[in-house]
Amino acid sequence: MDFHFMIDSLPKLISVIPMTIYISVVSVIVGFALAAIIAIVREKKIKVLSQIFAVLVSFVRGTPILVQLYVIYYGLPQFLYYLQNQGVNVKPGSLPHLVIAISAYSLNAAANLSETIRSAYHSVDKDQYQAALSVGMTPSLSMRRIVIPQLIPNLIPNFSNFFLDLIKDTALVYNIGIIEIMAKSNIIASFGFKYLETYLDALLLYLVICFVFGKILSLTETYVTRRVFSGKTHSVIKKTPQVDETEAKVGGN
Question: Exposed (0-12), middle (13-18) or buried (19+): which is 95, by Cβ within 10 Å?
Fold first, then answer.
């Protein structure tokens, strides 16, 4: 074990951490936005579109991310060539590999997070939504004030698990020529044939990155849960002394 080589290689691997984080964060943001649309369409059971999204989700969740990456890597340029032949002003040859990677990971995130959103939505008691409508609240206001605040705490744990898995899955983008932690590890290791040392460095970096983001998401979950479920309790507690004082005055009179 060459510890000196490990120490010398670590700063080089640290320099490509921003690429790993960039792909992960952008993909999960784009994917979450698409997932919300997919979840709404499927919950409202919009004809045709709902069935299309159901097939898409089933396909993405039933195939490896590496296969999806290759399909988009080879398929997206061909699709752009088809559009070009139809007269659309596109340049398939100039499509950046980073765009392909983000497209693949965003699609994967959209399919998986849509099921996470639906699961969190079904975890909220429907009677609360119906009760909100019965007292005169509009459907949109009921969703915004009653359902969504309770949905988010149930959503965060599964979202956290998926996001951490997505960070680790970015190790596959070196297959299409993007230099991130895993690609840099292979390059460095090939010079001195110190593969074990370099991969241990990569393992350490992935561990640290996932720990940091896991901690951030865990603190976020705790904060949101307290705000949603404890806020109402605190408001009730604040009103209680006023009632007691009034009753005391009445009793004294």
Answer: middle
